[in-house]
Amino acid sequence: MFIAWGVIPPVAIFIARYLKNVLGHRWYLSHTGLLIYGTGGLIVAGLVVIEINVVPGVTRFVGSSTHGIMGTVVALALYPLQCLLGLRATTFLTPIDERLRY
């Protein structure tokens, strides 16, 4: 999870902020790919590992730790919302802003 949240997003943000002129259209593909497939893939892998290792009979929500509750909220609600907002943001650009799009 550290790599999913502590390494990949800063690298993707760095690409979007500083390498846009260097990479051309590839900056958008790199940025989007890292965030959707990199972070998303590691979130799914983390959730699978957690499910495999949870002892039968242990509750996942009621009486769970704050870390578990917040992790669930981030993984199942906030991350998908962030992806949708990121994809939707490109549709709000006007023709003047098309040079910023990709």
From TrEMBL:
Gene3D superfamilies on file: 1.20.120.1770
Annotated TM spans: 34-55, 67-87
Keywords linked to the UniProt accession: Membrane, Transmembrane, Transmembrane helix
Identification of the protein by name: Cytochrome b561 domain-containing protein
